Amino acid sequence: MKNQCETCRYYIYDEYCGYYYCSINLDEDEMGNFLSGNTDSCNYYSCDDEYAVVRKQN
Fold first, then answer.
1. For residue 52, how many other CB atoms are within 10 A of its CB?
2. Is 11 exposed, middle or buried (0-12, 13-18, 19+ CB in 10 A)?
3. CB-neighbour burial class of residue 26 (10 A; exposed 0-12, middle 13-18, buried 19+)
4. Considering only CA atoms, which of 51, 53, 33, 52 is closest in space to residue 42?
């Protein structure tokens, strides 16, 4: 089962450090949820669907 973050457009891979991170400036509670893996209720989730624009063009 995928973590919700893995499909979010704000979940960015840092090639220099070699890990993924959330690019949103999270507050203390939100960061705690992110680090514990409890991301089901993230207010900033936005699906990173690369093909959404292409589907709209049809």
1. 9
2. buried
3. middle
4. 33
User: Could you read off the pLDDT of 7-49 as tens digits, one per residue?
Assistant: 888 999 999 999 999 999 989 988 888 888 887 878 888 887 6
SS3 21: strand
How far is the C-alpha of 33 from the C-alpha of 1, rounded, in Å? 18
Nearest of 42, 14, 48, 41 to residue 26 by alpha carbon: 42
Helix, strand, or coil (residue 19):
strand
pTM summary value: 0.69
Phi and psi of 34, rounded to 5°? Answer: -60, -45
